[in-house]
Design a protein that fits this description.
Blueprint (H helix, E strand, L loop, with lengths): L3 H13 L21 E5 L2 E4 L4 E4 L14 H13 L9 H12 L5 E5 L2 H16 L3 E5 L25 E4 L4 H11 L3 E6 L15 H14 L2 E5 L22 E4 L10 E5 L4 H6 L10 H16 L2 H22 L4 E4 L6 E4 L6 H12 L2 E2 L14 H18 L10 H13 L2
Parallel strand pairs: 3-13, 5-6, 5-7, 7-8, 8-9
Antiparallel strand pairs: 1-2, 2-3, 4-10, 9-10, 11-12
């Protein structure tokens, strides 16, 4: 595939952007052939700046839920754009969207809007501390809740004080959670949790209902707030909070990515148990109240309520998982597929430095399939069974190509460096 324009953009960016790119969409820890820049997207597909088309299993790292450029959502956004977007005060759509979310999410009595997932999780932390008057927040080891100093996985530029009241436990481990709560004593403000364990570089784990129930019990007993971070998985597992599937209601939940089908919006939802705390904090942003993304979200949520999109995602996700498993077995590879089928993680056995995963991802890219070698992926409602069949055929051909040269594969230097750092740190 041609990469001339992408290479030129990378060279230009290196002069005016630190490292040429930053954040989770940087390709520094992906195979060298991966494009950094894209020119357009539609439905389930993206095109890089050199005109190469890919079936996109990253879905913009989650925001693409219904399909890129969904005409219904785009039309709602366009109608609002004519009226106004970022104004001196909010549009009436803010009230309508809050009402819509409160009607859909069982635990929610109120909503506060922002822009990014980190905004929403940080606001949840602030509300919990304001409501309880306490400091300690418990999170699961390895869980990702954003890029603010209190939660970023990269400690560069942060201070120990930023995490002075952050404590950890093991996800799905009731005894570990109980020990962390006991150690916090009467200073526990909140327990944070993900809908399921979806840490990068590791197999995903389904939520143990016993863990969810115990977290709720501990918060009730101590007066702490239970927070579910729905930014990544929200509305891909349920039309309600994901923990509703376990019969547990949190006090707060943070949402983003797919709620407006790619338009920039995130939200904190909360129960009346912490309404006073929410009303006492000061958090804001110049574009947090912009009306266009809110109009897009209202239409997105209407579509989610009125269609069988979850059933569709599960059906095509199972088709993909079964097809990939058969292809891997056929060519002598052990592919581990974990997590919900609509948010899959794919790793290989006997691949501690991900060299097989990287080589497979690169082979898939050559065949027009964009997958990720160490991060969970996403399905969107615009994907079809035919798309899954194309991806399965590409997987079969890619693994057939890899099998005879498996022993000669080399690890990606950035991954080797990361694993060495983790080993030195005792992680």
């Amino acid at each position: 595939m041609l990469r001339a324009l992408d290479g030129a953009l990378k060279a230009r960016a290196a002069k005016v952007i630190p490292n040429g790119m930053y954040g989770h969409e940087s390709t520094a820890m992906l195979p060298a052939s991966y494009p950094q820049y894209f020119s357009r997207a539609k439905g389930a597909y993206i095109w890089d700046v050199d005109g190469n088309r890919y079936l996109d299993f990253m879905c913009a790292y989650g925001p693409n839920l219904l399909g890129y450029g969904d005409p219904r959502v785009d039309a709602a956004a366009a109608r609002q754009q004519v009226l106004g977007d970022a104004l001196t005060g909010p549009s009436p759509v803010m009230v309508e969207l809050a009402e819509t979310l409160v009607s859909m999410v069982t635990h929610a009595d109120w909503a506060m809007f922002c822009k990014n997932g980190t905004d929403a999780t940080t606001m949840a932390k602030s509300v919990a501390r304001a409501q309880t008057g306490r400091r300690i927040v418990i999170v699961a080891q390895g869980a990702y809740h954003g890029s603010a100093p209190w939660c970023t996985p990269n400690l560069t530029g942060t201070l120990p004080e930023d995490r002075a009241f952050l404590r950890t436990c093991l996800y799905n481990n009731v005894a570990s959670l109980e020990a962390a709560v006991a150690a916090a004593g009467d200073d526990l403000a909140a327990i944070f949790a993900s809908p399921f364990k979806h840490d990068a570089f590791f197999d995903q784990q389904a939520l143990d209902p016993a863990y969810a129930l115990r977290a709720r019990e501990l918060c009730d007993a101590t007066g702490a707030m239970l927070v579910v971070d729905e930014v990544r998985a929200g509305f891909r597992l349920a039309r309600d909070c994901s923990w509703s599937l376990a019969g547990v209601r949190p006090d707060l939940s943070s949402w983003g990515k797919g709620i407006a089908n790619g338009y920039p919006l995130s939200v904190l939802l909360g129960s009346n148990r912490c309404r006073d705390g929410a009303g006492s904090i000061y958090m804001t942003g110049s574009f947090w109240f912009a009306a266009v993304p809110m109009a897009a979200a209202i239409e997105t949520l209407r579509i989610l309520r009125e269609t069988h999109y979850i059933d569709h995602l599960q059906r095509i996700g199972e088709r993909l998982r079964n097809g990939f498993e058969a292809a891997a077995e056929r060519h002598g590879f052990e592919l581990r597929q974990t997590g919900p089928v609509q948010i899959p993680q794919m790793l290989f056995n006997e691949d501690p430095d991900f060299r097989i995963g990287f080589a497979w991802a690169e082979e898939m890219l050559r065949r027009g399939i964009y997958i990720h070698p160490w991060h969970n992926m996403f399905l969107c409602a615009a994907m079809t069974e035919a798309d899954m069949d194309v991806a399965i055929e590409a997987a079969d051909a890619s693994l057939a190509s890899l099998a005879p040269r498996r022993a000669k594969l080399e690890a990606h230097p950035a991954i080797t460096s990361r694993l060495r750092t983790r080993l030195e740190a005792g992680a």
